[in-house]
Amino acid sequence: MADQAAELREIFQKDKNKDKKKKKKSNYIITIASGKGGVGKSTIAVNLALELADRGKKITLMDADFGLANINVILGVLPKYTLYHVFKKDKKLKDIIFNVDDNLNIIAGASGFSQLADLNEKDRKDFLAQLEDINSEDDFIILDAGAGISKNVISMILASNESIIVTTPEPTAITDAYGIIKAIATENKDIKINLVVNRARNIVEAKKVAERMNSISEQFLDMKVNYLGFVLDDPIVPKSIKEQDPFVKRYINSSAALCIKNIANKILNIDESKVKKNSLKKFIKKMFRVK
User: Fold this and answer.
1) Interacting residues of 11 by C-beta distance below 8 A, sequence separation 6+
2) Count of C-beta atoms within a 10 Å radius of residue 200
3) How far apart are CA 100 and CA 154, in angstroms?
């Protein structure tokens, strides 16, 4: 593990200043999803959001797993209001934004409210109107989507600037990850798909999983999958989850934290020409397919 950490530090040291050369981005939306549950998708979403916020980026992390929302649990915070209160007309969207850190806000999910895509036209328009009141200074809006290939998840991915699919080296996780990529390809093969391999035993194993995924995607789907990075199988991760204290904050020199830093480096090298202003509103319109 020590050798792996040293190698990761070398990777991070090499690229850590690249993001400083980039100009400020505005409302770039990334959806994080997975083919199956239990692969660590939400943990990666939370820690990645915290890492980007620590780099000085303005982040809003939205819990878009409407059936099993849990990013606030991982963060160890308890927002008084969630999206449930918005959908029930008790609160406005701007009123439920919860500040976690200097540069990080979250929008807590509506557990048990899984029919967002089935809101009636009036409710959709009302939700869209509320987006106008959200602070437009965010560099990134990260959506922690649900697992699987539901209509909600695929719609979010198709509406985002790009997405991250999380898998583990387990055969079932790889199969399900391919399943969600296939579902995306059926709708749009031009969508940018990134892959993160979680709980890898080592760098070689992660690379093999990524190469296999890209190979079968190109062969059978005519779609390229970009290998964004990996997170090593580090005992610090489950420990931090139990402590409700994300590892990039508490265990900053752990192998897992260094892996997240490397992923953040790559995200911060996004081509600025792809950034679109007010893309959160455009995202919702595309997801709901309204004009």
Assistant:
1) 258, 262
2) 25
3) 28
Which two three-digit tokens encode residue 291?
């004009």
Binned average pLDDT, 10 residues per bin, the chain of 291 residues: 59 55 61 95 98 95 82 93 85 91 90 61 71 73 90 86 96 97 94 96 97 97 97 98 96 97 92 54 68 57
Cα–Cα distances (Å) from 13 to 196, 203, 246, 261, in that order, read: 20, 17, 22, 10
- Name beta bridge partners: 144: 32, 63
β-pairing verdict for 104-107 and 98-101: antiparallel
Query: What is the C-alpha R_g of the chain?
Result: 18
From residue 232, how far is each of 38, 105, 235, 236, 259 by CA, in Å? 16, 27, 9, 10, 7
Total number of residues shown for the chain: 291
pLDDT of 22 reads 45
Helix residue ranges per DSSP H, 80-189: 83-87, 121-131, 151-159, 171-187
Q: Which amino acid is at 164?
A: I
Rounded to an integer, what distance in angstroms lies between the CA atom of residue 17 and that of residue 242?
33
The owner of tokens 């540069």 is 103
Beta strand segments in 11-103, E: 28-34, 59-64, 98-101
Structural domains in the chain plus CATH codes: 2-16+25-56+141-288 (3.40.50.300)
Q: How far apart are CA 151 and CA 177, in angstroms?
A: 16
